Predict the 3D structure of the following.
Amino acid sequence: MKLCVKAAIAVLSTLVLGGCVLAPPQPGGLTFEDVARVQQGQTRGDVQRLLGEPRSKVVLPRLQQEVWTYKYYDRSQVRPHMDLYVYFNIGSGLVSRTEAGTDKDFDPGGGGGRA
């Protein structure tokens, strides 16, 4: 009986703790190496060719910026699931800057630093 209880606890622990492990990137998903190729001065077309279709696009009219968001995976980070924000100047259509932060879907209380 004790052996069955210990086995059941071991199985349940494995299932519960196994759910806490973050999955590696999906095949074909973006990596740090991919997003590092985005540079200031590139066009929307350049970025789309490098990274594909963004997850979201937001226009910030007062800042004259359009922000595209991408998800990527960076193995060098403690929390490797990341968001990349690509800022385009509305007037020129060129990348003005990028920012990276921890993906809120995997780190609800976290944030990130600039790339």
About this structure: The two ends are 56 Å apart (CA to CA).
